[in-house]
Automatic annotation (TrEMBL):
InterPro entries: Aldolase_TIM, OMPdecase, OMPdecase_AS, OMPdeCOase_dom, RibuloseP-bd_barrel. The keyword Transmembrane helix does not apply. Its EC number is 4.1.1.23. Belongs to the OMP decarboxylase family. SUPFAM superfamilies: Ribulose-phoshate binding barrel (SSF51366). Pfam families: OMPdecase. This is Orotidine 5'-phosphate decarboxylase. Keywords: Decarboxylase, Lyase, Pyrimidine biosynthesis. The active site is at D92, K94, D97.
C-alpha cells in the first residue's frame, strides 16, 4: 500500500490540498484519527454528544437533515464546539445530482452547508459535473470534497469500474477533492495521497441487520490502509458512556496508526 507508512505530519507537509493539510495536521496535533458519526435527531442530543466526544475526535460527521429541531443556532454552537475542542466538521450530505442543482443544495436552502461544513461528500453517479458544481461554491470558501468510491454496505454497487472512474475524477480535481469514503486505500502512485475516511467500523458487532458491515479499527487502518475511522452507533449507541467509548475508539485507531507507521 502506497504512502501508508508515512506519518500524518509528513503527509500534511506535502499535501497539495489545503483542507487535507488542515485535517492531517489536526490529526497529528490531537493524536486522533477518529471521526464520530452523530446520527441523532435532536439538537440537544447532538450538541451534548459533540461536547462529550469533542476531546477525542478529529472530525465530527453530521447528517444535519435528520435533526427535528434544526435551527441556525445549532450550527453556531457546533462551530463554537469545533473551535473549543479542535475538530473539523463533515456534513455527510452525499450529493448526487447535476452540477447546477448541487451547487444550490450546497450553498443555499435551509442548511447552507457550505457556510459551516469544512468537508462534504458526493456520489460520482452523475459524472464529473457534480464536482464542478460543488467546487464553484466550496473552493472559494476553502472547503474540501470527498467522493464515495466504495460504500460499506452489503451489495453496494460502488465497485469495479465505478470505483476506478471515481478515483480518476478525483485525480482531475485535486484542488478540491482530497479523498474518498471507501473501504480501502485508493492511491496508485507514490505521488498520490488521497485520504480514505472509512465508515463501517465497530469493535463489538459485525452488522446491523440492514446491510451495514463492520470492520475493526485495526483492520481499517493497518490491513486496508484507511486514514480516518468513522464510528456512529459504536459511540452514540451508548448514551451513558460517550466519553469512554470515544476514548476506546480513539485509542484503537491511534494504536493501529502507530503500528502501521512502525512508530
Ligand atoms: P454506524 O457506525 O452507526 O454504522 O454509522 C455509520 C455512518 O457512516 C452513518 O452516518 C452512515 O450514513 C455513514 N456511511 C456508511 O455507513 N457507509 C458508507 O458507505 C457511507 C457512509 O457515509
Amino acid at each position: 500500500m502506497i504512502n501508508t507508512f508515512k506519518t500524518y505530519a509528513d503527509r500534511a507537509q506535502q499535501h497539495p490540498n489545503a483542507c487535507a493539510r488542515d485535517l492531517l495536521m489536526l490529526m497529528e496535533r490531537k493524536k486522533s484519527n477518529l471521526s464520530i458519526a452523530v446520527d441523532v435527531t435532536s439538537k440537544a442530543e447532538l450538541l451534548s454528544i459533540a461536547n462529550q466526544a469533542g476531546p477525542y475526535i478529529c472530525l465530527l460527521k453530521t447528517h444535519i437533515d435528520i435533526v427535528d429541531d434544526f435551527d441556525a443556532d445549532l450550527v453556531d454552537q457546533l462551530e463554537t464546539l469545533a473551535k473549543q475542542h479542535d475538530f473539523m466538521i463533515f456534513e455527510d450530505r452525499k450529493f448526487a445530482d447535476i452540477g447546477n442543482t448541487v451547487k444550490r443544495q450546497y450553498g443555499n436552502g435551509v442548511y447552507k452547508i457550505a457556510s459551516w461544513a469544512h468537508i462534504t461528500n458526493a456520489h460520482t453517479v452523475p459524472g464529473e459535473g457534480i464536482i464542478d458544481g460543488l467546487k464553484e461554491v466550496g473552493l472559494p470558501l476553502g472547503r474540501g470534497l470527498i467522493l464515495l468510491s466504495e460504500m460499506s454496505t452489503k451489495g453496494a454497487l460502488t465497485k469495479g469500474d465505478y470505483t476506478v472512474e471515481s478515483v480518476a475524477m478525483a485525480r482531475r480535481h485535486q484542488d478540491f477533492v482530497f479523498g474518498f469514503i471507501a473501504q480501502h486505500q485508493m492511491n496508485e502512485t507514490p505521488d498520490e495521497d488521497f485520504l480514505v475516511l472509512t465508515p463501517g467500523v465497530g469493535l463489538d458487532v459485525k452488522g446491523d441487520g440492514m446491510g451495514q458491515q463492520y470492520h475493526t479499527p485495526h483492520d481499517a487502518i493497518v490491513s486496508r490502509g484507511c486514514d480516518v475511522i468513522i464510528v456512529g452507533r459504536g459511540i452514540y449507541g451508548h448514551p451513558d458512556q460517550i466519553q469512554t467509548q470515544a476514548q476506546r475508539y480513539r485509542d484503537a485507531g491511534w494504536d493501529a496508526y502507530l503500528e502501521r507507521c512502525k512508530l
